[in-house]
Specification:
Layout: H1 2-51, H2 57-62, E1 69-75, E2 80-83, E3 86-89, H3 96-102, E4 105-106, E5 110-111, E6 119-129, E7 132-141, H4 143-157, E8 160-165, E9 171-174, H5 197-202, E10 206-211, E11 218-226, E12 231-238, H6 239-242, H7 244-293, H8 299-313, E13 317-321, E14 327-331, H9 342-357
Antiparallel strand pairs: 1-2, 1-7, 2-3, 4-6, 5-6, 6-7, 8-9, 8-12, 10-11, 11-12, 13-14
Length: 359
């Protein structure tokens, strides 16, 4: 039963991790798809400018950052890049023909073509005029801006978020260690039984678990494919977060179990104590009966019986009446010479007369 409960709560925990990961995945798709649609609108406008023989200046002058897109540029057939700052020759750095064949796409984290030591993501949409691709419109996206969009949620969940390119493993977002360029840095982690880095990197979706490099806990990752962009997303949470509900349920279960166990133990103790008392009563009654049945041997038998009664009842004294009206009295040695308080004497007499009246 314990194994069953643990298995079911683990399923619930992993399902929650799936929901949390999918929420971010869906939002990434929604945001970047919306940005791409805006770029398509701009590409249509650029196509009209090209058909009219006009420059692209009107497009650049009217552009303002929108969504994740910080800036735009147009790659021309001669491998030059036109931006609001002018035109730059990119021969040898990029190929228009290769870019044209890609069609609409969004890149992973890549080098900025106009700035050294700077990384960005390019959302690309062809500019088509009269059925021919006359340019590639790029929307520049800062990876850190995309990461910042989910930082608050990640901090709230105390989680780690990874977004990386499917196949290559090149990292786009890593909310904990931004110094690594490829997801392969997780290969050296100690994976838990049933999990491996090879399965993690080659599967399109699933779960994996390994020892964290930052905490004395396991990190549990759920990963999914973002098919629209050829990316992967993985979100990791620690034991203390993933299995918080599981641990709470088991704490309650343990408390209830200990309470039930305590009640059973107490019940057994009471039964045993009552058994001891019953045995003591039976033994005392047997001794008294034996002594009284042997009264013909003398008063010592009655006295012994009264002593037995006092010991068992822990009484101050005991009295025996026979049918001839004779009575015998015994008082425990420690009470000899000690008088009862008046109220106790009155109570004793009242109880004695009350008993006698019923005989």
């Amino acid at each position: 039963m314990v194994d069953y409960l643990y298995s079911k709560t683990q399923e619930i925990a992993y399902e929650n991790l799936h929901v949390q990961t999918k929420q971010i995945k869906d939002d990434i798709i929604l945001q970047l798809t919306s940005d791409r649609e805006n770029l398509e609108t701009m590409a249509n406008f650029a196509s009209k400018l090209y058909a009219d023989g006009s420059s692209y200046n009107l497009l650049f002058d009217s552009f303002k950052p929108i969504g994740m897109i910080e800036d735009i540029g147009i790659l021309n057939p001669d491998n030059s890049l036109t931006t609001k700052n002018g035109t730059t020759d990119l021969n040898g750095a990029i190929s228009f023909e290769k870019e044209k064949k890609k069609g609409i796409y969004i890149s992973g984290k890549t080098d900025d073509l106009t700035k050294s030591d700077y990384k960005l993501m390019r959302s690309a949409v062809p500019i088509v005029s009269n059925g021919e691709t006359v340019g590639i419109l790029y929307g520049a996206i800062k990876p850190e801006k995309l990461a910042a969009r989910y930082q608050e949620k990640i901090d709230e969940l105390d989680a780690q978020l990874f977004v990386y390119q499917q196949g290559t493993g090149d990292i786009i977002i890593d909310t904990v260690q931004n110094k690594h360029s490829n997801i392969s840095y997780l290969k050296d982690r100690k994976y838990n039984k049933g999990y491996s880095f090879e399965e993690f990197i080659s599967s399109e979706k699933g779960y994996t678990s390994f020892e964290s490099a930052f905490r004395d806990e396991n990190l549990h990752l759920h990963y999914l494919t973002i098919n629209e962009f050829g990316w992967m997303i993985a979100m990791g949470r620690y034991d203390s977060q993933v299995f918080a509900v599981t641990h709470a349920l088991f704490s309650v279960f343990l408390i209830v179990f200990l309470m039930i166990l305590g009640i059973i133990v107490l019940y057994i103790i009471i039964i045993l104590e009552n058994g001891k008392k019953l045995n003591s009563v039976v033994e005392c009654a047997s001794n008294v009966r034996k002594e009284l049945l042997e009264t013909m041997n003398g008063e010592n038998n009655i006295k012994d019986a009264l002593i037995e009664v006092c010991k068992f009842a822990k009484a101050r004294s005991a009295i025996f009446f026979n049918t001839d009206g004779e009575f015998f009295h015994y008082i425990s040695p420690q009470y000899e010479g000690v008088k009862l308080p008046e109220d106790a004497r009155s109570h004793f007499k009242a109880e004695l007369f009350h008993y006698a009246s019923k005989q």
